[in-house]
Amino acid sequence: MTEDFTISQTLDQKGLLCPLPIINTSKEIAKLSSGQILKVVATDPGAPMDFEGWAHTTGNILLDSAVEDNSPKTFIFHIQKK
Amino acid sequence: MINLTNQSDNNGIQKKRLILVVSKGTIDMLYPALVLATTAPAMGMTCDMYFTFWGLKVLTKDGVNSVKIAPVGNPGMPMPNIVGVIPGMTKMASTMMKSKIEKFWPNIYEMIKMAKDSGVKLHACSPTMGFMDIKEENLIPEVDDIVGASAFLSWASEPDALTLFI
Questions:
Q1: What is the CATH number of domain A7-80?
Q2: Quick check: B10 pLDDT over 60?
Q3: Minimum CA–CA partner of B106 in chain A
Q4: Count of domains observed in chain B
Q5: How far is B133 from chain A (nearest CA, A)?
Q6: B1 within some domain
Q7: What percentage of residues in chain B have a pLDDT greater than 90?
Q8: Which positions ≥6 away from B83 have C-beta within 8 Å?
Q9: A59 vs B: CB within 8 A
Q10: Which residues form the domain of B21?
Q11: Number of alpha helices (DSSP H) and beta strands (DSSP E) in chain B
């Protein structure tokens, strides 16, 4: 859970619903170079499955997916650009 | 590998193509189509939206900012049909629905622009333009072209095409 990543960029998507967190993540990841890590914070309850599906389809690596807070439920994702 | 950053196929790999037939022009029918369309480029897919029948109204200058929801004959709405028929109810229901949705999502025209900016193609159905008396100059500038059924079927026949009728 407390793995150390060298995070290149952080994207706050709290309060946004599908598909905005994925669209914004995709735009942000496009700005990074291969191997760099993007941290995304989201509250959309569908986000864990959506990020998993997005990473699977696009080939970017979802390093981890964790629940950070429960009120409201907040998720943290670390994505490594392929 | 799919190139996320643009629509080109420089890497030589055929992208998956999402084709949406948008046949209804109400808020509850347009958002699901636009959500899928705006997500497709983020997933490395190309997307074509084919607007036909009532769906085409949203591509007109008058229609794009006056999209409504039908409170009558729509069992999903929390309003009895007998109340829904009262004059002004469609407008009221639409305003309420929009104010709820727009807390989370851009409005319909903004969604169309978002889709367009990320490379989604917007196609207007030519026979619908004929019988609904929609002229080319009435279409919003985001429309790519005017096509008929055979263009749609030829795209839908591609092995990498995924087609949904909404």
A1: 3.30.110.40
A2: no
A3: A20
A4: 1
A5: 34
A6: no
A7: 68
A8: B71, B89
A9: yes
A10: 17-165
A11: 6, 5
What confidence category does residue B7 fall into, taking pLDDT thresholds of 50, 70 and 90? very low
User: Domain holding B122: CATH number?
Assistant: 3.40.1260.10
* Chain B residues interacting with chain A (CB cutoff of 8 angstroms): 1-2, 4-5, 35-36, 38-39, 41-44, 104-105, 114, 118
Task: Return the structure tokens found at A43.
Answer: 């509250």
Whose tokens are 């669209």? That residue is: A23
Cβ distance B163 to B21 under 8 Å? yes
What gap in Å lies between CA B26 and CA B14, rounded to an integer?
A: 33
- Residue A57 has, within 13 A of its CA and on its CB side, a CA count of 18
Q: What is the pTM of this model?
A: 0.85
Q: What mean pLDDT is reported for chain B?
A: 89
Going by pLDDT thresholds of 50, 70 and 90, the confidence category of residue B2 is: very low
In a domain? residue B11: no
pLDDT of residue B11: 61
Q: Is the ipTM of this complex over 0.95?
A: no
- As given in the structure block, the two tokens for residue B154 are 């030829």
